[in-house]
Amino acid sequence: MSHRYRAVQWTRHKAVYDGVIAGACVAFVAVFIGIGMAVHRPPSEVSVPILLMRALGTLAIVLLHVVLAIGPLSRLWPRTTFLLANRRHLGVATFLVALLHAAVVLGFYGGFGVQNPVLAVLVRPDGSVGFEFPGFLALLVLFVLAATSHDIWLAFLGHALWKWVHMAAYGAYALVVAHVALGVLAGKPSIFLPALLLAGVLVLGGLHLAAGRRERHRDARGPSPHARAEDGWIDIGDPASIPDQRARVLCIGGGHRVAIFRVGDRLTALSNVCAHQGGPLGEGQVMDGCVTCPWHGYQYRPHDGQSPPPYSERVPTYELRVRGGRVQVCPTPNAPGTPTTPIAIPSPTSPRP
Amino acid sequence: MTPPQPIYVLYRPLPATLLALVLAVAGSLAGLAMGVAAAAAWGQPDPGPGVWDTANAATLTGHVAAHPYPMLLPHDGSAGVLLVGVGKVGPPGAVLALVGHGARVTGYPLERGGLKMLEVQEATADHWPSPAPGPAVGLGVHAIATEILDSKCYLGAMKPGHGPGHKACAILCIAGGIPPMIAWTDAAGRTHHALVTGPDGGPMPEAWRPRVADRVVVRGRLTSRDGWLWMAADAPDP
For testing the chain A interface, which of B162, B167, B174, B212 should be mutated: the one with the most A CBs within 10 Å? Predict the structure, then answer.
């Protein structure tokens, strides 16, 4: 959480995370080049710059797969939500690795000649473009995503538009698949490479389909018709079954979700959508008296949906009431940051108002 | 009711109950990535046996011929040695100034399948008597299914120096004056190579340049001389 923007607000976790990512990238390239040199020995060795080019290209694809798999993984197995916390660092790392790959390509394939290296690689003598072009476009998209990954852009665009912009990562993925299919695979490699790419596409596609199906099923479920009172308020179910300091997420129709939080014997209701990146607040936890988003730890007071000072983020609140010994939530949200009165969980023996 | 697992918050200590999961996920991802690196490195196609000895410069003497491409005909009578410049360019002016004369040429040798090339570092006139080019032997008109290559990369400057991934580099090399070449395998499994010129013996037709590194059929007259084949190629079909 921030009320002032810095390049990166370093925490020990972020430092460890970035160190592990950097170490893994170096290890990946070392393994690729080491095995490439061990298997393809003179006189049939692969040139070292080409090994480096291929290692970086393969690594960029692997990183892109991981970046794109984290979202559906965290929806399917919420315990892996921790992977989301620093996903933007992984995205920036993907761009940097792809940039290095492009630099080696330009230097080695486009350099040492009589033409501009960029034009030599991207444009054919008849003005057409080759398999390098989709790779170049993918690099541009990754650059835009990396450049706008900072919270400044998130605040400027709003999380909904920011999310849409960053959905372009899927476009970059499609361009990368085209780049590899038209270039590397057209060169008749062993079965390993097509099989690896196909496996990646299938795994990524399968994860997204499964996660989408789960979310759609969850949304479609919504409140049952008999849970809705005549004035539209919605029964939240048994409040006693909500774990303390946790929430139950209720789909109230129209794709909207309310998180009903329990703190001791009190209940409050907030929008399930974090004001930062749209994270699922209802999958978070009350920490230090504040609802804490499981994605990046943004916090909100349960009763008014406001971040504690000096922070300024706010989310909509919802009114709760007790009718006939049942807890109901108003389906119309209050303006973000509107205070509400927490209600006590009615005991099974409490008199009905 | 089973108490829910604590969540991870990036500015708070990692919950002990999540540590094992974090380590397991990180380890699995790292192991998977290394497996991909190993498989992808292992599965690279054979780049061919070209050799470029950049550690040991060689000095050759002989007669400098200009056709079909600048070449040194060693005075020991062995096959001609193609001469190119440093980078993706043809031979330097010092070599071209010696065409038709004896020369002493120093550079880094490239070789593949018995074909030799020298990346020229230095060329000077040599006063020893040198052989003139041998007689050209016509081998008729042929249509060959092949790929147009740049001879420097194919002979060992870049490995692999062929295929669609190398297309931009091959086009750049040929534009810079590196002789274009084709390679094909006959029914007996023998690999043959020929330099490519235009129909009149001049440079390869421009229309072929966008199709370098593609699978194409090149048609033209084959000629043999001084240990090299070359094809005077017709322009490609539109």
Answer: B167
Residues A193 and A134 in one domain: yes
Compute CA distances B202 → A317, A322, B7, whole Å: 81, 94, 73
- The per-residue pLDDT for range A192-225, each reduced to its tens digit, is 788 889 999 999 999 999 999 998 887 776 666 6
Let me know if residue A104 belongs to a domain: yes
Q: Which pTM was predicted?
A: 0.90
Contact A35 B210 (CB under 8 A): no
Chains A and B form CB pairs within 8 A to the count of 191
pLDDT tens for A134-180 read 999 999 999 999 999 998 898 899 888 999 999 999 999 999 999 99
**Long-range contacts, stretch B187-196, CB < 8 angstroms, 24+ apart:** B191/B113, B192/B229, B193/B113, B193/B115, B193/B229, B194/B144, B194/B222, B194/B228, B194/B229, B194/B230, B194/B231, B195/B68, B195/B69, B195/B151, B195/B228, B195/B229, B195/B230, B195/B231, B196/B148, B196/B220, B196/B230, B196/B231, B196/B233
Paired tokens of A64: 């892109």
- B75: contact with A, CB 8 A cutoff: no
Check: complex ipTM more than 0.85: yes
**Domain enclosing residue A274, as ranges:** 227-344
Q: Please tell me which of the candidates B29, B34, B169 has its beta carbon nearest to residue A31.
A: B34
Q: Which of A219, A254, A287 is the last residue of a domain?
A: A219
